[in-house]
Amino acid sequence: MPISIFGFQALWSPYFLSMLIVLTVFYFLGTTKWRSKFEGSEPLKKHQAALFVTAIVVLYAVKGSPIDLLGHIMFTYHMIQMAVLYLIVAPLFLRGVPWWVWKKIIDHRTVKPVFNFFTKPLIALILFNGLFSIYHLPIVFDYIKMSMLLHSLYTIGLFIFALFMWWPLVNDMPEGRKLSGLKKVGYIFADGVLLTPACGLIIFASTPVYATFSDASAWLQAMELCVPTSTLQGLNLSGPELFSSMPVMEDQQLGGVIMKIIQEIVYGCMLAFVFFEWVRKDQQETEEMSASAMMQQQADYTK
């Protein structure tokens, strides 16, 4: 059965799209026309604008396009959403917003102590991966998926903790908490290890573990998160099997595998970036030391 039966609003989330457009307009106004209001501000760089726009487009793709609707029908699409939202959109968003905008936010007296605590590397790692794992416990997952308020709060909260988790790795603040090259490598490996148990639970489960993808009544209630109730009441639906030929178990296992694959690709790219940045800085420091030594030798020679 085609998913178009759920209507335009469920498929394309026009209200969410409007919100993202408004956010993008304020981003460009704040970083260009209103830049003088930020202390130490710099001209907006092209790569920053490109990263921010990419983050917004990808965010809409996974939370506003038909992928979001499919994420309530098939577990595979749900895990694609999770991986892209927390492992791709979050770091893009952090790098797309200029550091002087983040400084304005972080330096607020009520934000600074909270931010400094939650961006400590060990705490950021444990909290994000812990909350992600707890969310995918069957009893927690099904309970949250059947409540619009709880689902929205948990999704937003988990995204904030994803920002905390990525901050020590990708922030470009001139001053502030940063990890060295070797510590970044260890941080990425630890992040990958901590996310593995949640994926393992999903991949190696012997039975379907989520009622909101296997039980018709629970699934219909969860569908109210993205489909207007009036639309659902006008349809005669028996369950997610109407829209997918993939068995529930295979869908569940594929979702766990895809989550792990995307994680490995993202973290692999991040490791490569960290490694080459580390090598570049090391070469730059070596060249500076060599130049300084040569200048000292010339000074000694002239004496």
TrEMBL record:
Pfam families: Caa3_CtaG
Cellular component annotations (GO), alphabetically ordered: plasma membrane
Name of the protein described by the UniProt record: Cytochrome c oxidase assembly factor CtaG
Taxonomic lineage: Bacteria, Bacillati, Bacillota, Bacilli, Bacillales
Topology with respect to the bilayer: Multi-pass membrane protein
Chain segments annotated as transmembrane: 12-29, 49-67, 79-102, 114-136, 148-167, 188-211, 257-279
The keyword Transmembrane is assigned to this record: yes
Keyword Transmembrane tagged: yes
Source organism of this protein record: Pseudobacillus wudalianchiensis
Record key words, sorted: Cell membrane, Membrane, Transmembrane, Transmembrane helix
Domain of life, per lineage: Bacteria
InterPro entries with a match to the protein in the record: Caa3-assmbl_CtaG, Caa3_assmbl_CtaG-rel
Record's subcellular location: Cell membrane
